[in-house]
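Run CDP-diacylglycerol--glycerol-3-phosphate 3-phosphatidyltransferase through structure prediction, thanks.
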Amino acid sequence: MNLPNKLTLTRILLVPVFMVFVSLTSLNGIADGSFQPTYYLIAGIVFAVASFTDFLDGHLARKWNMVTDFGKFADPLADKLLTTVAFIYMMRDGVCSPVVLCIILAREFAVSGLRMVAAGAKDGKVIAANMWGKVKTVLQMLSIIFYFFGMSIASMSATGAEQGVRQILVISISMVLCWLVAAVTAISGIKYLWDNRSFINTAK
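Sure, done. The structure for CDP-diacylglycerol--glycerol-3-phosphate 3-phosphatidyltransferase is below.
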């Protein structure tokens, strides 16, 4: 297994690490003072490191001519796993609307299903992510990073009323970003299916 693929697997392995820290606290604890922003900061760092491996594995694969069918399949799968888990926790916090998460999951199921059908076809076609898919992934990752870093910094850098204002500001911006993510995700899914309509029409 080459280095880019190892980085992809590392991203997958970082998902449960992220889950551990983000599960240790939640926004529900703000009311009674039990919210621990340090855990969100660590979760944000873990997520940021995992996100960086997404850029790094693709860059190295192209630079060293190590693009493989496994990488084309596993790389977007790792991205989906990482971002979907994060959005589920953001929905738990009331930041991400269930509608947004449904749009994200619908897109991912549709695209993943098409990829599996293509991979199992007679010629074993591998459908790589398009540019809209990459934009969608980057926007999702940046939105998630903003939320977890923003909430931790807002909660640790102020007290009292000022802290509350900063937290509300981060939450409000994060909500807007989630809806923007939903729009871009829907567009990328429609574009992906449209670009591969010839395969869909001929699939048996």
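The two ends are 33 Å apart (CA to CA).
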